[in-house]
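pasting for the record
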Amino acid sequence: MNVAEVSIAVYCAAVTRMAEASALASRFSLPLVDTADDQYVFLLTYTSERLEVRKTGLDAPRPIYVDFASGPLLYRRAHGGGRRQSLAKAIGMKESTNPSIIDATPGLGSDALVLSWLGCDVTMVERSPIIHALLVDGLQRARTDSFSTAVPDEQLAVRHHDAIDYLSRLAQSDAPDVIYLDPMYPQRDQSALAKKEMRILRELVGDDEDAPELLTMALARAKRRVVVKRPRLAPLLEGLPPAVQLKGQTTRYDIYIAPRA
């Protein structure tokens, strides 16, 4: 989705960050506003601490932002099961194996971060300029504050590209072992949208309606496998059926073996 299609403006809530806010507004061709009113549906907001997206209005949920040093993530690092967790098993991690990974639908980056903690080199490829800006801000903060050791400097990177185009231009020598997908898909049951954060993301970036095409491209590029994360009861992506499925209580991993593996 193009930024211009969303009712969004840049707002600076910290005077010391006005130059950054102005530069971001110029880069995205967005208005820079000096009041946090509801003239726009969303405000891409600089605070003294971070860059965040705020939805305006009386019943607006809390802002969304990337926080790679959050309590839940650090707890997941300490108690998430390491290489025994379902995510690591789906990726194909073994004791002496650290596959290279492209996360082609990173969202707010939590799974990519966990995989980097486990020793994988992970490149997040995000097409939404807004989400990309949040990811960049989150990485910068994590690497400059007291939690800098929480994010490996060389093992987690972010790129601003459409994933299908990025993969189509990728040299074979640069192809990753694994391509990981967690697409935003059309939501039919609105009651299932438990996380307000997911509502905001869907409004900002829309559904990944080209997910089947992305799966096809990923299978053509991955050296070993493509892993698709889905809600447990969600339908398969259109196309070839997965070779294996790993099912948890709420989440399912569909594992596709790359043709050249």
